[in-house]
């Protein structure tokens, strides 16, 4: 089980991601904006951060850039969640320090699989079951 921080300003998406990842056996903490995430990450030390790009107060790009300057947390992988699939958007995410980019909308099983792949690359064990075709 991994501890995953979900940073998303849209409540419905935040709740869907939480439900999906909890069902897959992960511990999930939700935050609604990048500024609050910067405060919370050093305290909670998640294994993975899933972050929306467009949020009020501080964009995901801005929050990721700040987190990647903090020695205690810069090793934590950040994966952006965004409906914007243009190459320039994805390049911006990588430039900000993100490990990966997941496009919205996504099927729950696809989210579980992508999260498991990222966690595996960082040596973090992920539960092996999905949603059993509920996507």
Strand order of the largest sheet: 2-1-3-4-5
CATH superfamily annotation: Response regulator
Q: What's the architecture, going by CATH? A: 3-Layer(aba) Sandwich
- β-strand amount: 15-25%
At the first level of CATH, what is the class? Answer: Alpha Beta
Radius of gyration: 14 Å
Helix content: 40-55%
Summing up helix and strand content along with how strands pair, one would put the structural category as: alpha/beta
Main sheet characteristics: 5 strands, parallel
Distance between the termini: 21 Å
How many E-type strands?
A: 5
Written overview of the protein:
By secondary structure, the protein is of the alpha/beta class. It has one domain: Rossmann fold (3-Layer(aba) Sandwich). It contains five helices and five strands; from the N terminus they run βαβαβαβαβα. Helix 1 packs across helix 5 and helix 2 runs parallel beside helix 3. The longest helix has 14 residues.
Could you provide a short overview of the structure?
It contains 5 helices and 5 strands, in the order E-H-E-H-E-H-E-H-E-H. By secondary structure, it is of the alpha/beta class. It has one domain (3-121): Rossmann fold, CATH 3.40.50.
Give structural attributes:
135 residues; Rossmann fold; five-stranded parallel β-sheet; 41% helix; 18% strand; globular; disordered C terminus
Describe how the helices and strands are arranged.
Elements: E1 3-7, H1 11-23, E2 27-31, H2 34-44, E3 48-52, H3 60-67, E4 78-82, H4 87-95, E5 100-103, H5 108-121
Parallel strand pairs: 1-2, 1-3, 3-4, 4-5
